[in-house]
Specification:
Blueprint lengths: L1 H17 L26 E8 L4 H12 L4 E7 L4 E6 L6 H10 L3 E7 L1
Antiparallel strand pairs: 1-3, 1-4, 2-3
Length: 116
């Protein structure tokens, strides 16, 4: 009985190994895509402030942290060596005065020096 089972399984294995590979089904055509109109990215504004009172990297970090809390702000750099802070923001969501107020809230004096 075991021998018959063994012969049958061996024969089936040989048939499976010798059988031609099934043809690959044609890849389905991709579904048509609807054109999606994307909103234009907001025009960003960059402004530099001269900041009096920045004396160390802790001052820089405080300014970056406070100004960075404003949702429309995309990037903040601060340098105590140059006494300068540069802010890139979406003017539709924040104003220069709002950024200036955030800096001055920390005890620094901020003056717009260069507009980008």
């Amino acid at each position: 009985m075991k021998r018959v089972l063994f012969v049958t399984l061996t024969a089936l294995a040989l048939l499976a190994a010798c059988a031609p590979a099934p043809e690959k089904a044609a890849a389905p055509e991709p579904a048509p895509t609807a054109e999606v109109e994307t909103a234009a990215a907001p025009e960003l504004e960059t402004v530099k402030f001269k900041v009096e009172g920045m004396v160390c990297t802790n001052c820089e970090d405080a300014i970056k942290g406070e100004v960075g809390k404003i949702e429309a702000v995309k990037n903040v750099t601060a340098s105590h060596v140059k006494l300068e802070t540069e802010v890139t923001f979406d003017p539709g969501g924040a104003s220069r005065d709002q950024i200036k107020t955030a800096i001055e809230k920390l005890g620094f004096k901020a003056v717009i020096s260069v507009e980008g």
